[in-house]
Amino acid sequence: MQTRAETVLLPDGVRMVHHAADLPRAAWDALTGPADFWLTCRWLDVVEATAGVPMAYLWTERAGRPVACLATATATAAVPWALGRPDVLLRLAAKSRLPGAAEFLAELPGEPTEQLMPTLLAGGRHTGSTRMLCGPDATPADVTALAAAAEELGRQAQAATVCYLYLDEHDRGLADVLARRGYRHFTTGEYCSLQVPPGGFDGYLAALPRKRRQAVTADRRRIQAAGVTVTAEALGQSDLDRFAELESGLLAKYGIDLRPPQLLPLLRQLRDGFGGDAFAMVARAEGEVRGFALILRHHDTWYARQTGYDYAYQQRTGAPLYFELLYYRLVEEAAAAGVRAIHYGLGSADTKRSRGCTSSEQRCHLLFLSGRREGAPA
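Above: the chain's sequence. Below: its structure in token form.
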């Protein structure tokens, strides 16, 4: 019987454990760059504690040290996280007319959930930039071995598919390997980030088009007129109960029914597990917290993780809390801290680009594991 800490040796020299606590953590994390926060061991700990699905971590080695790594999770149709499922994403992508999605959906011989689930998620269970970690000593053979091992895990789990839900358009090495192995792909969204100008907010403002600069200046005047103050504070000093209340209200706007007691455990976990690398931008007015943005730090990059707003207050005052918290004041704080980039992730790409972000296309690369079915995408 396999013990929790046992490392399983798979064909082609691939090693595997089922818990992030059993990884060679320092060596795994050494392969992460500034854009890889969601693949760090401490974030994988968070995913394990909250995802409720089997996880497996694969890697290849040189001289006893990992050179290429792959995080995986097995998901059934029962998982609640809609943006972590290929069936739901395919429907959403087709509805949004994203490239390749409608054609992929039309070629399925049946209903997407029946055809695509269960699935072996490869590249991490997060939204945006799912990929392999590859060090300078990794070769195409390492990438191929990890891809093959993930497919075998999927077969053992009786999954219908294996997929990389959000492979970045610039990750050509992995995309080429997957194409040779028979994967098809469709676009799942755009991932947005902002390069922080060295001049702070003044440099940020100067880089925007003239009409946008005027709009930003007007936004800040409304914030001032409403008496809103924004501060950066450690999560240990924050009112997490209020954060959960505000986040629940935001999610409800998008049809997601998560109540504050369901959201509090993750907020507390981030507070307890990330220390000074997790903080919040907090907007206050009239003696109350009116909005927050939770930020996570990795190398010289910040990640906007969770946010929430008092919509009744915003409607009454017209204060643009989202832009002040997540762009204007955050850029000021980031420049002062020497941060090079802020990652905003998926969704509302047009709005994010309007505030200075750049975007890259994300694609779901998917393989049917049970052999090509009649009528399935060729």
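The chain has two domains: 8-189+361-368, 197-339.
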